[in-house]
Design brief:
This protein is mainly α. It has ten helices and two strands, in the order H-H-H-H-E-E-H-H-H-H-H-H. The protein has helices spanning 3-9, 27-36, 40-44, 49-52, 62-73, 79-93, 98-109, 112-121, 125-138, 142-149, and strands at residues 53-54, 57-58. The chain has a two-stranded antiparallel sheet with strand order 1-2. It is globular. The termini are far apart.
Length: 162
Amino acid sequence: MRLIDVEIDRYDWSTFECGCGKTAAHLADDLRLLAEAQSREEAGALRIDDHALIQSFPQESAVPVAAVLMAALSGDLAVGARVVCLDLLLRLVDTDDEDSAETCQSIARQGLWGLYRDLWFNTHPDLVVYAYLVLRVIETDEERLRTYRDSGRIRLPDHLAD
C-alpha cells in the first residue's frame, strides 16, 4: 500500500460536492490513476483540476485533494504525473477562496522539503518551475527560498529569477 492510498482512504469522498456536479466519490479512483500515470498527457487527461476547482474557486474536495497530492508527491511518480500534481497543488494553494487557500498552504508546508527536492535536483524544467511557484506561495522563510534560488544550482526562466 502506498501513502497516497492511505491518504485517499482517510476521506469519505461521497460527502463532498464535486466540480462536475456529482459527488466526489469518483475522485478516489481518479487520484489513484493520477499517481499511476506515466505521462503528463495521461495525468492531465484525468482533469482532476476540473473536479477540485471551478476556474480558481475551490470545491469541497479541494482540501482533501491537496492532502492526497502531497502524499503522492512524497512517492515515486513519473515526471509527467509529478508536474500535473504540482500544477494542481499550485492552483489549490493560491485560489480565490482565502480559507481554502490557507488550509491547502498549511498542508503543502508539511511537505516543504519534498518541494525543495524537486526544485534542487532539476530533473525536469517544469518540475523546477512548479515547485518554485508553490514554494513562493507557501514558504514563510523568504530568505531561505531566495538563498536556494540564488545558489546558482537552480535553473529558472528569466521571469522567475528575480
